[in-house]
Amino acid sequence: MAITLTLPDAYGFVLAAATSTFFVNILHMARTGKFRKESKIAYPNCYATHEQAEKDPAAYKFNCAQRAHANFIENQPSALGALFIAGLQFPVAAAILGASWSFGRTLYLYGYTGGSGPKGRTFGAYFAGAADFALKFMAAYTSIIFILDN
Q: What is the pTM of this model?
């Protein structure tokens, strides 16, 4: 059975919010690259060793940036999926939550790589996490509506 899918007029906002995540990824790449250069951790090493990080604050910051980036790319696919699905039923709300997720992930990055290390990521994690949680519930609700309407 074929399904015709008509996108809401405001779905462009959903696409804009999704696109913002690509630029957050670029921020992560740039910040991680900056700290890699400062710490002199050569490729292909993904992280500074424990000993290097204990002795060199630049190596420790590189590890924080690398972990923040890894966490971002671990979470981006499901956040985008929830955004795209939720946006079918609630385009403006989903777009606002998607943009909030991107903003929260930026706070997460700068908090993690600031002077506080892992503790600095907390506010951004909660901010992005709340947006992500809401998007996932909206996506589930949208999925149920699609199932029941067919």
A: 0.92
